[in-house]
């Protein structure tokens, strides 16, 4: 009987301990779960704080210093990283005198007005090339072109080089035939049929051409000034790239290794520069230099 009592007592004690342990576990488990839920992996808090700080800096207007190059001019302007390319153009207009609507900004391609500087990949020290012309330069170019576009025949009868029906090739039109009859200048490049050859970086001019007056001229690229020069012994026409709206060419019948090149300037149908005996293999290279990749699409 005594053993039964002892065993009973031991059993009662074990049951009591079990009950006590279960109660304690029940109380501790929620606390542990709560603690676990609030814990974060090591380093994540620091990363989150850094990201928040970076975002806050941008929102507060983190400034980036951008080098702006326009022709021979170079300046540095500071803008918030989240400001737009249109905002940058407004700053550039104050430094260069080129209105925003006349500007093309180049940085790994042409920048779009709605882009933020951050989205465009600009950082402090980045260099942006400005293409464009001041209003007075455009007016000056227009005056020069009005007097030097070579209106053969002249008079009040209109431009002898005006557009003709599409079925009539330029080389068959009377005004162009008169120029072609003067012959190709001796110092011109040899032409190549049915092939386009990229211009090398060191090929900055094309000699041995004729303008619409039949005068020998040289076509020169001035990327540092963003200008195209058509120069003779007596004078040079300077055409800002920005004012060139289109470039067209046609092969010269019977001399297909050479072409006639038309450079349209501005919106007027009559504001064009005509160049003759342009090596046909160089036509695409000329368009690429002046108008960019879009001219070949």
Would you kindly provide a written description of the structure presented here, covering whatever features stand out?
By secondary structure, the protein is an alpha+beta fold. The strands form 3 sheets. It has a 4-stranded mixed beta sheet, with helices on one face. A 4-stranded antiparallel beta sheet has the order 5-6-7-8. The model is unreliable at 1-11, 18-26, 29-40 and 147-159 (pLDDT under 50). It starts with a helix and ends in a 6-residue tail after the last helix. Helices cover 32% and strands 25% of the residues. The protein folds into 2 domains: 60-131, Phosphatidylinositol 3-kinase Catalytic Subunit, Chain A, domain 1 (Ubiquitin-like (UB roll), Roll); 135-296, Pleckstrin-homology domain (PH domain)/Phosphotyrosine-binding domain (PTB) (PH-domain like, Roll), CATH 2.30.29. It contains 6 helices and 11 strands. 23% of the residues are buried. Strand 6 (216-222) and strand 7 form a beta hairpin.
CATH topology title of the largest domain? PH-domain like
Counted up, domains total 2
- The CATH homologous superfamily of the largest domain is named Pleckstrin-homology domain (PH domain)/Phosphotyrosine-binding domain (PTB)
Tell me the span between the first and last alpha carbons: 109 Å
Number of H- or I-type helical stretches: 6
CATH architecture of the largest domain: Roll
Please report the total strand number as a whole number.
11
* Rounded Rg: 37 Å
Biggest pleated sheet: 4 strands, mixed
Q: Which series of helices and strands comes N to C?
A: HHEEHEEHHEEEEEEEH
List the strand order in the largest sheet: 2-1-4-3
Please tell me the overall pLDDT: 78
Unreliable stretches, pLDDT < 50, 5 or more residues? Answer: 1-11, 18-26, 29-40, 147-159
Classification by helices and strands: alpha+beta
Beta fraction of the residues? 25-35%
The CATH class designation of the largest domain is: Mainly Beta
> Can you give the helix content as a percent range?
25-40%
Molecular shape: elongated
């Amino acid at each position: 009987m005594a053993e039964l009592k002892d065993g009973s007592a031991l059993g009662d004690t074990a049951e009591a301990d079990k009950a006590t342990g279960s109660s304690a576990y029940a109380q501790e488990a929620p606390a542990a779960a709560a603690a676990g839920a609030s814990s974060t992996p090591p380093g994540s808090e620091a990363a989150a704080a850094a990201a928040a700080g970076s975002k806050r800096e941008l929102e507060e207007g983190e400034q980036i210093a951008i080098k702006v190059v326009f022709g021979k001019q170079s300046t540095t302007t500071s803008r918030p990283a989240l400001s737009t390319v249109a905002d940058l153009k407004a700053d550039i207009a104050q430094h260069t005198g080129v209105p925003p609507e006349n500007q093309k900004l180049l940085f790994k391609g042409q920048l779009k007005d709605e882009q933020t500087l951050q989205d465009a990949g600009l950082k402090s020290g980045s260099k942006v090339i400005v293409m464009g012309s001041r209003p007075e330069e455009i007016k000056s170019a227009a005056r020069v072109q009005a007097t030097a576009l070579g209106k053969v025949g002249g008079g009040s009868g209109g431009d002898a080089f005006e557009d003709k029906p599409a079925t009539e090739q330029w080389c068959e039109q009377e005004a162009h035939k008169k120029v072609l009859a003067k012959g190709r200048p001796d110092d011109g490049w040899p032409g190549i049929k049915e092939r386009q050859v990229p211009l090398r970086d060191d090929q900055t001019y094309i000699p041995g051409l004729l303008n619409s007056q039949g005068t020998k001229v040289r076509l020169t690229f001035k990327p540092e000034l963003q200008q195209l020069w058509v120069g003779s012994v007596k004078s040079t026409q300077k055409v800002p790239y920005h004012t060139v709206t289109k470039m067209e060419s046609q092969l010269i019948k019977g001399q297909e290794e050479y072409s006639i090149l038309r450079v349209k300037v501005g919106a007027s149908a009559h504001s064009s520069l005509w160049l003759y005996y342009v090596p046909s293999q160089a036509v695409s290279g000329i368009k690429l230099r002046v108008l960019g990749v879009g001219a070949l699409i």
